[in-house]
Amino acid sequence: AALDHQGLTYGTLVRELKIERTLNRLPLTEVQFNLERVADGLAIPGLQIRTHPNPKAAVNFDLFFNMIEGPDGLRLDVDYNADVYDPATVRRWVDHLSTVLRAIGADSAQPLRQLPLVTLADLPCPSATAITPPETQVLHDLVTAQAARTPDAPAVAFGATSLSHAELALRSDALAARLLAALPPGRGRVAVALDRSEALPVALLAVLKAGHAFVPLDPRHPAPRLRQVLETAQVKALILPDAQLPAYAEGLGVLPVAIDGPAAPPAELPEVAPEGPAYVIFTSGSTGAPKGVEVPHRAVVNCLASMAAEPGFGASDRLLAVTTVSFDIAILELFLPLITGGTVEIAATEEVLDGFALVRRLQRGDITVMQATPTLWGMLLEAGLQPVAGLRILAGGEPLPLDLARRLMAGGAELWNLYGPTETTIWSAVNRIRPGDAVISIGHPIANTELQVLSPEGQLLPVGVTGELNIGGAGLARGYFGRDDLTAAAFRDLTLDGATRRLYRTGDRARRLADGTIELLGRGDGQIKLRGFRIELGEIEMALRGVEGVAQAAVDLRAPPGGDKQLVAYVVAAPGAAPAPESLMRALEQRLPNYMVPARYVRLETLPQTLNGKLDRKALQAPEGMDGLLQPRDITPPASPMEERLAGIWAKVLGVEAVSTTETLYSLGADSLTVFRIAARMLDAGLNLEARDLLTHPTIRELAAFAAAREGDGAASSRPSLKSFRHGARREGAFAS
Question: Which of 270, 345, 624, 660 has the fewest C-beta atoms lying within 10 Å of its C-beta?
């Protein structure tokens, strides 16, 4: 069509289309590309004539490319509006065009989609973390070497129990000997299903020393999923609190091994190669079946060595471990202190679920490092945490909101944003966040790692262009255990600038910034289009969190039956607040374009989370009048005043009209944040109950009976309410004993 009407001028087109004009903008387009040919062969008798193009005296467009073809080649003049574009950006674009033209000249037959826009040499790439190569690339050998250097230093703490590095080595050696005596020769996989305690690192280390790869299990996960993991990983043995094989493992030929048992004769520990698998950890699969990521020793050693250098961890550091062992970032929490001479303190499950308990522990001042998802950090701030200088905060696993980052740094704490998928071993990028930062990026790659933003065709993309983040280097996993098809789809060999390398496709949208750092832009479902406008949901969510009376917020695109898609906001109100939809809309209209203002609002007591503590966007309920509303359950009504009070609290936090008094928290879909909020509301209501009581008595009926029995025994003592903790009002030493 353009060729059919190539004689139509820009002015005629604007006039015929009757496009509305404004004083500050040209209609239809603000960019023009023009191709000229220099006249050749002009001859005048008696004169020697040479024709030269001259720059434009003035242009009307914000960006004007004028390409001139002459006998000596191509010349490009670029005029630009300096109020809109900066010189470095325009210079980069000229270089990209030059790269494309050179590629066409080299091979004019190649498809357009394969033409490169940029080379690796053109891209600003910040240096990866610099490290001294570890003395060995086998994880347990590093732990053993550290134990020899600092045998008496504390290594692991849990409650009142503490193990020195030497004691950890002895206990793990003994368990490794028992595994070697019980299992047939050869490498394999051994699952570990233990509650959080000092025994957990003992078991993991013993599996490695015995020459196997460990498969970490969270005993709280549903039995069918645990069984599925054991089957998929082809597990040889299962380390348990005792030698009683659980029902989910029956019939699989799995050998039960108690964490403590009769000593086996000392055994010579087998040698393990750096490429040998250290662990197989399972993540959700798109087909509904979990897939096991097989990580070699050299990958986890590289990550830990890099983390020891940056953000930094040494012999004087003490890390509070709060992550479930089924989430791979727990590997850092448990092993980084063991290879550096530091200490890992393992928080009990009850402490992790009770935000107040974690705040109390952090306020003692001896914890120097803690790693958690932004969701958990937000919960701790709500519980009264005021991070201060001396605490190194590691945040990762989901995007770090800028407003949350500023709150975490307000008291002088050191904040690091970490990024990395399981398939590239825990973390692949690191960035120190500063109070003045306007953008939260994932920063630069860790040691021996590369981050590349690629097009769908696998081509390098220039600065500022959105593509898929690909990761390569020493952190790459071996693949998905037993799933060569999935491995081939996710891990691929690509040739960039003539060199072939293995890269993992993260599925994360990203762009490279002018300083070379990488900014994540969400998953494919993190960006939506509405009425032709491209919208980042995170921007709306951040704006919502900035509205008075809003504690947390999420936004999604939903469509009512027979209706058009519309933005729906899910809002968790701040304590004591009840923001109305009208006020929220008015506030957002002052911050955002009208197409980014949600049309519907849903009030929730808590945002849904995945097992790993991330926002579960897919689990956001549909608002009234839309498909997908949860249907009422068969409800056993309250039978006492105490049950009535508890049922009211539970229903409010869970966002339902009523709750059965015989249904457990877990069957109601409660997660750690839900448990925290229920416990907080019970304290607010003057009930002498806390998070650990919820875990022990997970139904309203059981919890009410427990409360009544304790009051009858006179065992009750007053505890502070949530209001006492909020905004840092309560200080250490003021807690009830």
Answer: 624
